[in-house]
Structures are given as structure tokens and as C-alpha cells.
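Hey, sorry to bother you again with one of my protein questions. I've been puzzling over a protein and I'd love to understand its fold better. Take your time with it, there's no hurry, and the full record follows here:
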Amino acid sequence: MADLDIQISIEDTGWPAEDVLHALGERVLGAAVTYLREEEQQPFPKMPPEVSLVFTDDASIQDINAEWRGKDKPTNVLSFPAFPVKPGQMPGPMLGDIIIARETVEREAQELEKSVYDHLTHLMVHGFLHLLGYDHMKNDEAEIMEGLETRILAVLGLSDPYEGQDLKMEP
């Protein structure tokens, strides 16, 4: 039985093929589910919960960001949980949507001197944790969320994306 039912939507021609993104999503989010279930005792439904991965562009994510967050600018990733969940609670059968903007991911990857796939992997994990109720608006929340991100990324063979940085809290 799969850990997740992943639905893919590609809204920008610059992204890799759907099968490549689906395989990446299965690997990354599957590792996150396994880690959270085994190491953090996060409950998950018996049936594989569904998550939607939307791969879009800066213009589309800017519109969404303006409408839903009042921030009229592009961002790297937005998460929309299907149901409100607190960290550690049993999520519903539909987790929600993770929307990722290609140009921002590519630009940030270059600035961070990382591969696009490594940065995309981090953003998938980050967005997935938001679907499970984790946040980073307060220092204590950011510590927990970023710690989980770092440990999940380590399972995937990636280094700590926050090493040497202050906690990431977007106003």
C-alpha cells in the first residue's frame, strides 16, 4: 500500500515531465510520511491520504498569494490544508494542496548554490509539514518545523537547509 495518493498538476511548461515530478513527489513525501510515522509517531489514516502537488509559475502563485495571504508578490511554495489540523493530530483523507512556483525555485536554488531538485525537495517537505499543521510564524514553532524538515531531508541525503541561519519567519 502506498503511503500517499499524489495528484500532479503542471501549469507551467518549464517544469520536468509529469512522471518525473510524480516520482520525485512519491520519494520525497513518502520519506516524510515514513519518518513522521516511525520517528515522530504522527498518525496517518489507514487509507493513503491524498495530496495535490501543483507546479506553476511566478505569475500564478503571485495571484494566489495576493488573494489568500494579502501579499502581492511571488513566493516559492504555498500550502492549503484541506482541513485544519494541529501538529501530531490525525489528518483527514485529503491533506490538501502544495503549490510551487518554478521561477522562484530556480532563482533561489541558484542563490543558495543548490540544485533545483534539492531545493524543490526541501520545499515539498516544507509544504507537506504545513498540511499537517506545522508552522514557523513564532520562534518555538519554527524550531520544531525546521527541525523536522532538517531530519526528513537528512533521510533523503540532503544537508540542513537552515545551517548557519536565523529561524525563517516570514512576516
